[in-house]
Predict the structure.
Amino acid sequence: MLDRILNPAPTIYKWDRFWVGFVPGLLGPVVCILFFYFLKYTNNSFTEYLFMVRSPVVLSPILSLGVIVNLFIFFPFIWSNHYNAARGVIGATFIYAIPIVVTKFMV
C-alpha cells in the first residue's frame, strides 16, 4: 500500500504526484487560520490569538474551518484528472481530522 502511494502508476500529467496535493493540503488550513486572525482578531496580538486557539473549545472549530479550504484545493485536482494529487489532499485532510476528532470528543 505504501509503495503504491510513494510510487504511483505513471500518468501523462507532470504534476500528478501525491506530494503535489499533500503539501498544499497541509498549508491551506494554516493559511486559512492566519487569514481568520487577520480578518477578525487584529486588535489582539498574535501570541494572544495562539493562546486563545489552544483552548479545546476553540481549537476544534477553528481547525474544522481551516480544513474546508482543502475542498477548494481538492476539486480542481479532480476536475483536471490529477487523481494522485487529489489523493494527497485527502491524506493531508485525514492528518488534520485526527486532532479535530480528539479535541471534539475526547477532551
